[in-house]
Design brief:
Layout lengths: L14 H29 L5 H20 L5 H20 L8 H7 L2 H15 L7 H21 L1 H23 L2 H28 L4 H19 L5 H14 L2 H10 L15 H14 L2
């Protein structure tokens, strides 16, 4: 008796089953993310912006009162003011302000921070310190308040960034396992998600909710998230390698966009005042739109 077995090629089956498989994978990733998010929120208790703001203001008021009570001299007062301002900026803005000397702050920090620290240098290091203590305290509080108000304005775009990053991460995982016929569709979803993120940044900047420093910072996050997901990379290092491959081997428009996009990987890109925020948005869009 003879038996014959006819094997069907993989793609002879309906795309319906591939859709079901991708759907189940997406569901598993979503459930895992929700599980991690719920328990992470229970375990972690990050210092809220308003709490840190109040604590910093209390520290400044305490230093001021100690100076008035003659428990601190003028030099020590300015040292404490400088420390509190630097700490607050580092925690809320990400700039390594605590370890930077004045020249570094002038190159990388916002001008108002550099100017304030420059004003404090004299009273901190002069042989005979001279300064208006009340004015120095007022300047420190004004800078902290300005940064706090800016952070409040950015709450919406920060929330958008977290959601868009998560969506890109999920789609990036799907892209790594998607069959060729579905890969272009997944890449299109990543592209659309990233472009809507950039548009949100653009609108926030137009409303005045983002200054030039913040625009560069948010664009850096958006571009790096896109490159990581669109390349199917598992890490920033892999993503940067993919970007370099586009720069060396891609089509002319892709290579040009990749060259510009390298700037977004600079840790201090946000503070490069010479890099126009409009240019950052334009180059970010160009990279996202031309990536294949």
């Amino acid at each position: 008796m003879k038996y014959s077995i006819d094997l069907e090629p993989p793609f002879a089956y309906s795309a319906y089953w591939y859709a079901i498989g991708l759907g189940l994978i997406l569901l598993a990733i979503l459930l895992r993310w929700l599980f991690n998010w719920i328990f992470k929120r229970k375990v972690e208790s990050p210092l809220k912006a308003d709490k840190l703001y109040r604590q910093t203001m209390q520290q400044i008021d305490g230093a001021d009162q100690s100076y008035r009570d003659r428990q601190l001299d003028l030099r020590t007062l300015h040292q404490k003011l400088s420390k509190e301002v630097r700490q607050y900026v580092q925690k809320m803005d990400g700039l390594r302000a605590q370890s930077m000397v004045y020249d570094e702050l002038c190159q990388k920090a916002r001008p108002d921070l550099a100017d304030l620290i420059g004003d404090y240098y004299g009273p901190e290091f002069a042989y005979v310190p001279q300064a208006d203590a009340a004015a120095s305290v007022a300047k420190a509080k004004a800078l902290i308040d300005e940064l706090y108000q800016r952070i409040l304005k950015e709450k919406g775009i920060n929330r958008t960034g977290r959601v868009k990053t998560w969506i890109n991460d999920v789609l990036g995982r799907v892209l790594r396992i998607a069959p060729k016929f579905a890969a272009s569709a997944v890449l299109g979803l990543i592209r659309g998600n990233s472009l809507s993120w950039v548009q949100r940044i653009e609108k926030a900047a137009a409303k005045g909710d983002l200054d030039s420093y913040s625009v560069r910072g948010h664009m850096s996050k958006a571009v790096r998230s896109f490159v990581r997901s669109a390349s199917g990379a598992k890490s920033e290092t892999e993503a940067f390698k993919a970007l370099e491959a586009k720069r060396k081997n891609g089509l002319p428009e892709q290579a040009s966009a990749a060259v510009s996009a390298r700037d977004f990987y600079d840790p201090d890109f946000m503070y490069r005042s010479s890099y126009n925020p409009v240019f950052a948005i334009t180059k970010g869009k160009e990279l996202i739109e031309t990536w294949v």
